[in-house]
Backbone:
């Protein structure tokens, strides 16, 4: 390289450096004082005024709640209810100190200190000087300009005093005296932002589906002669439109407008995002530049009609979500937001309500990018902020969040926590003027044409969707323990889907709000019954309602219950996407053979598979999906079908038996054994024995009273059959030889007609019975006793892996499952799912492993429910619902389950047709087979 070339290269390099410096000086520079999130923290000096570790200076990680760092005391917002009127909340104060240095070149800039969230009253000092007035309100971003208080290029001292309880009682009423955990501390990040003296303070975007783009650009000061420009950039990085306007010296607000031809529209199904780069210029030079992401979409609430997005009516498949993680409380980290949104999308939900406060900003970014409709909510749990306290908080919330396309509605507080004087404030900061609603649980609080009344039943909802307002319950089907959630959802969803003014709703709620108590050996505390409300557990463990919701809310709706005799591969399908044709989806099928009882592993073997493009079925239309199955498909046990959305995400998997139970059981029931059955009779019992298995039946009651086999002296299964509904009085027993088998037949008076026991030479005991009931009953069938403590696990062919209720039959499919005995009661520790105990559906065979050996139950008849041991859906004054007598039951009908808002039988029935009692009309017959031993007995 010659000298001239070298000088040229150096000049180019210097020019590039100067350009980069100029560019850097025209953009916002960020310096974090805290960590970026609860998993990436910084150490500050700290002292708490009361409770654990109080009264002396030590250190703490920021951001965090101080309770989770071992300081202070825990409070649940309803402690005044739990502990009575004399209870006093801990008014702890946290004193924070942190030394930091700012670059010398920041002198002459605007420098703000920004708090993303601090709980609750926050006083900030810089180098001993107040940064500004005390901020009141925990969940809101606030900032102070501290440029005149800093020592540039030197050390500075930040001192922050955070009070748990606010000096404004309305703030306490709105945020802290609530039905959720309340904490203290700086729980969201703190950082400095350095900007040019002239800059853009904030923007508000209104981008419509027709491509029209409007933007309010709020400058930090009014200066004449400046130019404000905007470049709209698509996802490929191309500039698709520009806009510009001049400033006046009298107004700090500049309005920009542009048009984009045929923009890609943002919906929850197609979350297309654009970015806008906005610059403040002086004589062609850039003074300040910023950017934001947004989406083109038009949201309309058409009164007495529906909510429309981009001209299409949409229905909300939503859930309520607290910002919460067991280790961290309401402090969070980006992966937690992503986990939650992905789980909601996996349940085929399309909406989330941010209860009961605005979330961290990253959660909204994830909703924007993955596609969820969001209700962003001002805090206010049954009591509202007063106008003085609430007005600045509305401003802080809307200014931060207005440009997120995922937000479709603002909620002005929850369940009576509505200050109506604040309703008009939202539009001051939201150029798109989204509708403001009230999330409420009392009639008469509808606003702006939408009623969000909580916890209505199916039949009262029928009246509401026929009334004047749109109906969208912002809380319904309360999911405490194993109640609510998906129970009753199928009926409720059909009601909203098919009603003009039904908009859908938001299940309460997403996750059990269990906090790891650092004062109680790190146990997870749900505050009794108060916080076990989730569809998933504290660490996002999936409960039975999770998969059921996934099936109910699947936008590919398939209601085929069983394959018809003449099945030729055609499956009726309904498209419940709002914007996607089913020809954008993919379907795959599998032919499977179930693993046998003797196989070491549960599950199945795939013996054939294929794929098929989705049919041309428009949104909300119906059509036929045609599978190209091989001619011999019926020789296999079952057919499975998967549906995938346009992005390749699996929506749901359905499984249908290809063979009847009688064929599926052929190999099991044809076990080899000696062709001899012996019968002995004593005064009180008849004993049948074959293949080393003996069965004793009482001649006085007709019940099974004794079991044994050559490998075990006793098997404790017995004291049955007991009719679980209706009456049965033993009338007598006869026995006789039938071919190479022997039969003992008990007769009854009352509703039970007969029970017929037949011992086969193989050792299989066949029991057939008939009962006759007319009327409505919670359950029907028969029960036996067996000690739960002797049971190690179960293996079965049927639907699973989760238990079911009458009004939550979805989310389970045919396969061979295996489960170890666990004592999980849904919503409480240890959150081991699936639960071992419960009602299990469509059982073909089930093998129980016990301390006394194995025994197997099988049925050639369809629709058998097997009840395993004692369990409950909701624990309260008494566990609900009531169980049949006995320990192991074989049932034709099982009960529905209610929710926290109603567990009485009448309240359960209010959840809809599927939640009613079982209507029985006449005779019911069933055959069961029992084998009281392991396969080795026969060999």
Residues:
């Amino acid at each position: 390289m010659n000298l001239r070339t070298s000088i040229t290269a150096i000049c180019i390099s210097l020019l590039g450096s100067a350009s980069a410096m100029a560019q850097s000086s025209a953009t916002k520079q960020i310096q974090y004082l805290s960590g970026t999130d609860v998993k990436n923290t910084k150490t500050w000096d700290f002292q708490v005024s009361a409770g654990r570790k109080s009264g002396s200076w030590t250190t703490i990680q920021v951001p965090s709640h101080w309770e989770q760092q071992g300081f202070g005391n825990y409070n649940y917002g309803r402690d005044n209810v739990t502990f009575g009127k004399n209870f006093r909340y801990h008014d702890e104060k946290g004193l924070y100190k942190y030394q930091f240095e700012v670059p010398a070149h920041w002198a002459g800039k605007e420098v703000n200190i920004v708090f993303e969230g601090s709980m609750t009253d926050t006083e900030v000092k810089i180098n001993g000087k107040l940064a500004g007035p005390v901020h009141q309100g925990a969940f809101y971003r606030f900032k102070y300009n501290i440029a005149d208080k800093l020592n540039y290029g030197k050390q500075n001292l930040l001192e922050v005093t955070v009070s748990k309880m606010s000096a404004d009682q309305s703030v306490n009423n709105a945020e802290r005296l609530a039905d959720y955990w309340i904490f203290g501390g700086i729980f969201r990040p703190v950082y400095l932002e350095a900007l040019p003296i002239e800059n853009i303070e904030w923007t508000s975007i209104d981008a419509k589906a027709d491509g029209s783009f409007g933007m309010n650009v709020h400058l930090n000061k009014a200066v004449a002669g400046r130019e404000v420009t905007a470049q709209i950039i698509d996802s490929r990085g191309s500039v698709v439109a520009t806009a510009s306007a001049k400033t006046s010296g009298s107004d700090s607000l500049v309005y920009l407008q542009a048009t984009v031809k045929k923009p890609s529209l943002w919906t929850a199904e197609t979350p297309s995002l654009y970015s806008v780069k906005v610059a403040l210029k002086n004589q062609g030079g850039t003074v300040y530049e910023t950017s934001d992401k947004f989406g083109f979409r038009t949201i309309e609430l058409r009164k007495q009609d529906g909510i429309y997005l981009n001209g299409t009516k949409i229905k909300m498949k939503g859930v309520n979500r607290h910002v919460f993680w067991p280790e961290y409380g309401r402090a969070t980290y980006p992966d937690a937001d992503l986990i939650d949104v992905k789980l909601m999308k996996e349940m085929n939900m399309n909406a989330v309500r941010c209860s009961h406060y605005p979330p961290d900003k990253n959660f909204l970014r994830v909703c924007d990018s993955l596609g969820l409709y969001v209700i962003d909510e001002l805090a206010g749990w049954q009591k509202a902020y007063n106008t003085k306290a609430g007005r600045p908080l509305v401003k802080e919330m809307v200014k931060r969040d207005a440009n997120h396309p995922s937000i479709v509605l603002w909620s002005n507080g929850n369940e009576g926590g509505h200050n109506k004087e604040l309703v008009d404030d939202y539009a001051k900061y939201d150029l798109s003027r989204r509708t403001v609603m009230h999330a409420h649980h009392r009639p008469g609080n509808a606003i702006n044409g939408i009623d969000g009344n909580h916890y209505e039943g199916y039949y009262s909802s029928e009246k509401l969707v026929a009334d004047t307002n749109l109906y969208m319950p912002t809380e319904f089907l309360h999911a405490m323990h194993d109640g609510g959630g998906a129970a009753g959802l199928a009926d409720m969803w059909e009601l909203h889907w098919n009603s003009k003014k039904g908009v859908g709703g938001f299940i309460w709620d997403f996750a059990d709000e269990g906090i790891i108590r650092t004062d109680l050996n790190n146990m997870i505390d749900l505050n009794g019954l108060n916080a076990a409300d989730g569809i998933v557990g504290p660490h996002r463990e999936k409960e039975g309602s999770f998969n059921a919701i996934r099936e109910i809310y699947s936008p590919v709706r398939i209601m085929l219950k069983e394959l018809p005799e003449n099945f030729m591969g055609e499956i009726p399908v309904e498209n419940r996407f709002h914007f996607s044709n089913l020809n954008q989806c993919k379907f795959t099928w599998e032919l499977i053979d179930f693993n046998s009882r003797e196989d070491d592993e549960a599950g199945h073997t795939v013996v054939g598979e294929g794929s098929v493009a989705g049919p041309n079925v428009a949104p909300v239309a119906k059509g036929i999906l045609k599978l190209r199955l091989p001619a011999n498909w019926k020789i296999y046990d079952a057919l499975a079908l998967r549906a995938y959305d346009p992005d390749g995400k699996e929506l749901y998997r359905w499984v249908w038996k290809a063979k009847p139970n009688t064929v599926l059981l052929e190999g099991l029931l044809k076990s080899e054994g000696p062709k001899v059955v012996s019968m002995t009779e004593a005064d009180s019992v008849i004993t049948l024995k074959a293949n080393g298995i003996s069965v004793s039946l009482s001649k006085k009651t007709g019940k099974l009273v004794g079991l044994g086999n050559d490998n075990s002296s006793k098997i404790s299964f017995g004291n049955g059959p007991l009719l679980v509904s209706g009456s049965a009085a033993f009338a007598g027993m006869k026995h006789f030889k039938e071919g190479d088998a022997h039969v003992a037949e008990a007769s009854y008076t009352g509703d039970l007609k007969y029970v017929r026991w037949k011992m086969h030479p193989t050792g299989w005991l066949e029991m057939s019975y008939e009962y006759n009931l007319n009327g409505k009953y919670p359950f029907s069938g028969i029960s036996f006793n067996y000690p739960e403590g002797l049971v190690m696990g179960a293996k079965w062919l049927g639907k699973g892996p989760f238990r079911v209720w009458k009004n939550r039959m979805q989310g389970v499919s045919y396969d061979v499952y295996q489960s170890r005995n666990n004592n999980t009661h849904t919503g409480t520790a240890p959150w081991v799912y699936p639960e071992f105990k419960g009602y299990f559906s469509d059982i073909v065979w089930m093998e129980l492993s016990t301390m006394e050996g194995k025994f197997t139950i099988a049925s050639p008849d369809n629709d058998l429910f097997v009840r395993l041991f004692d369990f409950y859906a909701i624990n309260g004054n008494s566990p609900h619902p009531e169980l049949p007598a006995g320990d192991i039951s074989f049932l034709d009908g099982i009960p529905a389950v209610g929710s926290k808002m109603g567990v009485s039988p009448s309240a359960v029935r209010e959840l809809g047709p599927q939640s009613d009692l079982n209507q029985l009309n006449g005779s019911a017959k069933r055959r069961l087979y029992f084998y009281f031993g392991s396969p080795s007995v026969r060999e």
Observations:
- The chain has a mean pLDDT of 93.
